[in-house]
Design goal:
By secondary structure, this protein is α/β, with parallel strands linked by helices. It has 12 helices and 13 strands.
Length: 412
């Protein structure tokens, strides 16, 4: 039987362990449905108050003393500990700092140092551009050789020569949401004597991840998507403890020194992942992230994954039932275990259709060449909202509203 609105409302009554967390987030604009968690997650309701406290108590009043009286320097470790269960890591394995791209560069260089004299980086050819750019920059400087991977099925062949230092993979494709089998890939990489480096930007905070459980070596991820750290939030990095002290970091800064305020003339790397800290932390950005971290400390990762599965499966069923015959195709895998944080559709005019949806109160995103992405956040989106969003989508498709010149302008 086709899904009804009543069915969707009934599904919102499940997953009791997450009930109440939706109220911990700001609702957004009236009559607007947000399905762009893969671009920027919802704002925790107390984020402004936390930032205001830093501005008043920290900056206006304490000033320099804020570094001693408040916990600004401890935040990279505290925030890392808060999100560690969400990515299947231990608290001591994760630090929040810098950006995803910078962390990608740092850990690629670190992996090369650990694996010398091996110097080949295997990187996906069609991956989020910054990941490839970081590897290309290292190769351009003479620090590595690149070997491109066109399909995960070709990973054994890429590893076969025995010269690979590190394999850099995106857990979830940012366009079609295909999720790789982390355990399988790690086993192949490990058997070849190489290290794995995962980008979790489109999976952390949405689907189940088991970095320790799958014996991953290294990982990075974005703080402002599903993790809700705020616009431009610091990213995170993960280092398995067996590697944490195996080499110097690629970028040596005073915050990564073994004794930060000793101001010694020579660098000594801090123990464990603290060595990957570099410069003064962004205190205001950390305050916003801390609002999200307070929520993540209460989230059961398995309940989160189950809720995300229910939302994704419901969305796909509604699209099948209500939008067939309008030129839209499912681009993401149907199976939840093979799908990441968002559901991607293939449509020849995805970009203007996305703009039309935004204009009609359904915030989604598009990516070239023709991907339309719905990314419900498992802590805030509802099945009822999905019903409304698909009804609006169907109306726009019926009217071919995407042809309107207003929607032809490029958008982020």
């Amino acid at each position: 039987m086709p899904l009804t609105l009543a069915d969707c409302i009934a599904r919102d009554g499940g997953n009791a362990s997450l009930r109440g967390l939706r109220e911990r987030f700001a609702p957004g604009a009236p009559d607007t449905l947000y399905f762009d968690a893969n671009s920027i997650g919802p704002m925790p309701a107390d984020a402004p108050a936390r930032m205001q406290a830093v501005l008043q108590q920290g900056w206006a009043e304490a000033r320099r003393r804020g570094w001693n009286e408040l916990d600004w320097l401890e935040q990279p470790a505290k925030l890392g500990a808060a999100i560690a269960p969400v990515i299947g890591a231990q608290a001591e394995d994760v630090r929040v700092a810098d950006s995803t791209s910078i962390n990608q560069y740092k850990l690629l260089r670190f992996a090369l140092a650990l694996q010398a004299p091996r110097r080949v980086i295997v990187v996906q050819r069609d991956v989020f551009p910054s990941n490839r750019y970081a590897a290309e920059g290292i190769a351009q400087a003479g620090g590595a050789e690149l070997r491109f991977l066109d399909d995960i099925a070709a990973l054994p062949a890429a590893l076969a020569p025995g010269d690979v230092a590190v394999v850099a993979l995106s857990h979830v494709d940012y366009r079609d949401s295909t999720r790789l089998d982390m355990a399988s890939a790690n086993a192949q990489v490990r058997a070849a004597g190489a290290l794995s480096l995962w980008d979790l930007s489109h999976s952390a905070g949405a689907v189940a991840i088991a970095l320790r459980g799958t014996d991953s070596d290294l990982a990075v991820g974005c703080g402002y998507k599903y993790l809700c750290g705020g616009p431009g939030a610091p990213a995170f990095l993960y280092v398995h403890p067996r590697h944490a002290e195996g080499a110097w970091p690629a970028v040596c800064g005073w915050m990564g020194h073994a004794d930060t305020f000793a101001f010694e003339p020579d660098y000594r790397p801090a123990p464990g992942p603290d060595r990957f800290l570099v410069g003064t932390p962004p205190v205001l950005a950390q305050a916003a992230f801390a609002a999200a971290a307070a929520v993540w400390r209460e989230v059961d990762p398995q309940a989160l994954d189950a809720q995300h599965r229910s939302l994704g499966d419901t969305l796909i069923q509604l699209l099948d039932e209500q939008c067939a015959g309008f030129g839209i195709e499912l681009a993401s895998p149907r199976e939840h275990a093979r799908r990441g944080g968002h559901v991607a559709l293939r449509f020849a005019h995805a970009a203007p259709l996305a703009q039309a949806l935004v204009h009609h109160g359904v915030v989604v995103s598009a990516r070239k060449p023709e991907a339309l992405r719905f990314a419900p956040h498992p802590l805030t989106a509802t099945h009822e909202q999905l019903w409304t969003a698909v009804a609006r989508l169907r109306d726009l498709l019926q009217r071919e509203a995407w042809r309107d010149p207003r929607y032809q302008q490029a958008s982020v």
